[in-house]
């Protein structure tokens, strides 16, 4: 199977990055979600799309929501993905620190979905 060209990260990329941020091996995470390791691998590589039930189970296991995962996978999610990758790659951080930084960063990004923070908007 081949991947379709895309503009930004896909849902599988987001799931994989979040799993790696939580320092969960693929088999352990698949078990937590209630699916097989090969199926999770296919989801992460963009070869299969998870059902709504599976996506919700993945989100629950990652302590987030399916809507947040979908939003991160939107085509304009490239900048957030770069920041998430930097957080995940920093060896000075513990798993808990990575998770906290990720949650705070994503909360800030969601709070300024119009593109600019409130203080940079006219009248803000």
UniProtKB/TrEMBL annotation:
Q: Which residues form the HTH cro/C1-type domain?
A: 15-69
Q: Name one GO molecular function term.
A: DNA binding
InterPro entries linked to this entry: Cro/C1-type_HTH, Lambda_DNA-bd_dom_sf
Identify one Pfam family in the record.
HTH_3
SUPFAM superfamilies per the UniProt record, alphabetical: lambda repressor-like DNA-binding domains
Indicate what this protein is called per its UniProt record: Transcriptional regulator
Q: What is the lineage of its organism?
A: Bacteria, Bacillati, Actinomycetota, Actinomycetes, Micromonosporales
